[in-house]
Amino acid sequence: MIVKTTVSALWSAPQSLLDDGLRRVDTLLAGAAPGVEVFFRADDVAAPGEACERMLEIFARHGLPLHLAVTPAWLTPARWDVLHRWAGDSDQWCWHQHGWRHVNHQRAGRKGEFGDERTPEAKRADLARGRARLEAIMGARFSPVFTPPWNRFDAQTARLLHEAGYVAVSRWAGAQGAVPTPEGLPDIPVNVDLHTRRESDPAEGLDALLREIEGGLASRRVGFMLHHQRMNDAAFGFLDRCLAAVAGSGLKPIRLDRPGS
Fold this sequence. Notes:
The protein has a single domain (9-253), classed as Glycoside hydrolase/deacetylase (TIM Barrel), CATH 3.20.20. The chain is 40% helix and 14% strand. The chain contains eight helices and eight strands, in the order αβαβαβαβαβαβαβαβ.
């Protein structure tokens, strides 16, 4: 299991800049139109660690749903015992599938585990293998939602997911235009990237983050993407304050395994 732990420049910004950003987030969320949806998705979940536990504690304190995209090959019964003990059986958690092994199979171009350089048989087998492993370890806690590694898959995979009975997928906003999903398989995308930002200047990173939140509000659904391995104290503090603002706003928290609810 290999995950990136690099902390984006934004989260090394002076606290004064982050405090200003939080005030702007408060203003944006307080002004959200009635009925705007919000959800949070944490990727690359499987191995218990201090950052993961801290993330779960923050969400538990605010009582907001968190979608945990679990990489099946990384999860073991022992790891699940710890994660389940930390989270408990609260209905706020949506444990779902994040690919199979989080391995790139594309020889050229952008990375992908379920791209066009694999046979349908190979992709079908990996989807089934991953789902079976999560169902065997998690039991009824597993939700048949699929988040692809690197937020992308090909049209063939979209059809395979629909045939296999998944109730929703979640990618990055804009992916639907390139690879739409079949009717009956909703794509509920994230559109706010908290932790894999590439801006080298913290102020630019903050401005870009706020623009993403504004765009999400304008689309009537704000989907936050988290990577807990790439969070420091500043990022956790920002998340805590952001969840408080969401909880105190008129936004409608949703769960991806209950489309249309």
